[in-house]
Structure formats: structure tokens, C-alpha cells
What does this fold into?
Amino acid sequence: AQSVTQLDSHVSVSEGTPVLLRCNYSSSYSPSLFWYVQHPNKGLQLLLKYTSAATLVKGINGFEAEFKKSETSFHLTKPSAHMSDAAEYFCVVSERGSGTYKYIFGTGTRLKVLA
Amino acid sequence: NAGVTQTPKFRVLKTGQSMTLLCAQDMNHEYMYWYRQDPGMGLRLIHYSVGEGTTAKGEVPDGYNVSRLKKQNFLLGLESAAPSQTSVYFCASRPGAQLTGELFFGEGSRLTVL
It folds into this structure.
């Protein structure tokens, strides 16, 4: 069965320092993996996705994630945090189920960026 | 380009009242989903649809009904609202044929049941 674990519910970083948001998954098949960002009172916006091509995936706003099959991880990173990065981030795993595509969401990591 | 539009954005109900949330997408997507978001629980799937005229239950379907009479619209109904249904509801859609497709989300509908 699929599952997603976001290892930190809250992360605080100073502006200009690196960001690391951790995600581990389990999946019976070759999964598609996604990171979404949600700013306060907004919908979810796709940051990046892994779809079995390159293991290092680049997304919007300078974010990237690396798929590591041996570690079943898909951690999100950014070299230098900006104040506008403060938001909640969701790791999502997807695979084809019976009749549809199933998406399993992690419980989210709230990123705080300190001035 | 509107994408996925949800109405209303906010609603307050009394216990036992009914209401319908409307989701409309203009991307010609086959699949549509309704999720609820509660603090610390991520998003949980309520119902989904793989095409016009079809619906199916998700992870937490009790107390909700859905309809998809037109491809572009997916309605979520609460027949008798309960305080436990206080939540933020998100509609999402995706193309049907694309194996690696992502979900496209609306901006959410915040429902409070008193």
C-alpha cells in the first residue's frame, strides 16, 4: 500500500540559508512523486514532479528534489530561502489504482523563514 | 485562463442544513476529485469522478454526495451538515490519459458548521 511520511511538521530557517524538507514514501510500483506548496488561504500549487525520468528534478522558484529509490526518499531542497517561501509544503505519491489515479498526501511541513 | 474554480469560497451552516459546493474546470480534464483538508491530516479524498456521469467513493465519503452531469462540473453536496464536516474543501482535476499527470487545484471552500 502507498504511504507518504513527511518527517518534520515544522521547519524554521533564516533567510538566505538552505532549505531541506524531508519526505519518505512507500509504493508497490514505480510511483510518480510530487511536491506542492500552499500559501495561506490559497490552493495547492505544483512545485515539481518526478516521473521516472531524471532522478534530480528541478521545479519552480529554485526548488529541486532528488528521487532516491534505495532510500525511498524524495526530499525537497532550495539553496537559499526567501521570505516568500514561507508556506506549507506537501509531498504526494501517485500510482494507478482501480479505475483512477490515486494520490496520497503527506501531512505537510510548515516552513517558517526568519528575517 | 481560470483553471479550477470553486464556489462559494466561504460558507457557514447550522447543523442539519444542506448545501452544495460547485467545482468548475475549463481544461477539458477527465478526472475530478473532492478533498477535505484538516489540520495535521493532509488532504483526504472524499469522492472522485473519472468522467461525465460517473462518480466513486474515496477515503472519507460518509455524509457527502456528488454528481458530475457535465464534464466541466463536479458538485459536492452535504444533505445534513454536521460539525465534523467543518473543513476546507478542495476540488482538483487532471487529464485522463496522462500517466504521470499532476492535479490542478482550486483555491478552496472554507465551510464552518455550527
